[in-house]
């Protein structure tokens, strides 16, 4: 069930971006916010990477868009392209799926340094569902502002 809901929200983000040009995907919501659909895709690549690869799998790797660990850097999609952002996001989703499927149980735990305690794979999946759901709400408004398209 967790896998299905997570994949539903991943697909929803992709759907919100479907058929748009790079310029439309980079369009910001409103000043001073840097929020854009492309920025959301980049952000979710960082979220997938951080929670599945860095936390659950224990990989010592930097963020995709910031070697200094600045999670906000991903939101700036001003010079990004669909190919770059979606390529990184889809690669991270595939890593996440491999890690989740290879796990012995959803009860495995790993230390999450930003939170200062161990987290289970189950909690990570729930957290990502929450992250996607929240940002898909943002994506609804962004897409409607670009071309009037509403709904999932």
Describe the fold and architecture.
- The chain has 152 residues and is mostly helical.
- The protein is 59% helix and 5% strand.
- It has 5 helices and 2 strands.
- The chain has helices spanning 2-17, 22-26, 37-56, 82-102, 121-147, and strands spanning 109-112, 117-120.
- Strands 1-2 form a two-stranded antiparallel ribbon.
- A hairpin with a 4-residue loop joins strand 1 and strand 2.
- Helix 1 runs antiparallel to helix 3 (37-56), helix 1 packs parallel to helix 5 and helix 3 (37-56) runs parallel beside helix 4.
- It is globular and about 45 Å long.
Keywords:
152 residues; mainly alpha; two-stranded antiparallel ribbon; 5% strand
Order of helices and strands: HHHHEEH
Q: Tell me the number of helical segments per DSSP (H or I, 4 or more residues long).
A: 5
Report the count of strand segments.
2
Rounded Rg: 15 Å
* Mean pLDDT value: 94
What oligomeric state do the depicted chains represent?
A: single chain
Q: What general form does the structure show? A: globular
Relative strand content: 5-15%
Distance between the termini: 20 Å
Query: Which structural category do the helix and sheet elements fall into?
Result: mainly alpha
- Low-pLDDT stretches are none
The largest beta-sheet arranges its strands as 1-2
Helix coverage percent: 55-70%
Major sheet, described briefly? 2 strands, antiparallel
């Amino acid at each position: 069930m967790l896998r299905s809901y997570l994949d539903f929200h991943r697909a929803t983000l992709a759907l919100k971006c479907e058929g748009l040009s790079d310029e439309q995907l980079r369009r910001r919501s409103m000043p001073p916010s840097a929020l854009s659909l492309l920025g959301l895709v980049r952000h979710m690549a960082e979220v997938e990477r951080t929670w599945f690869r860095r936390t659950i799998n224990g990989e010592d790797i930097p963020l995709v868009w910031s070697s200094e660990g600045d999670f906000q850097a991903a939101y700036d999609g001003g010079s990004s392209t669909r190919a770059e952002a979606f390529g990184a996001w889809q690669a991270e989703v595939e890593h996440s799926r491999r890690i989740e499927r290879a796990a012995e149980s959803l009860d495995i735990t790993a230390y999450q340094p930003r939170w200062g305690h161990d987290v289970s794979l189950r909690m990570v999946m729930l957290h990502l569902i929450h992250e996607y759901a929240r940002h898909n709400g943002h994506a609804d408004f962004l897409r409607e502002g670009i071309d009037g398209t509403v709904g999932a």
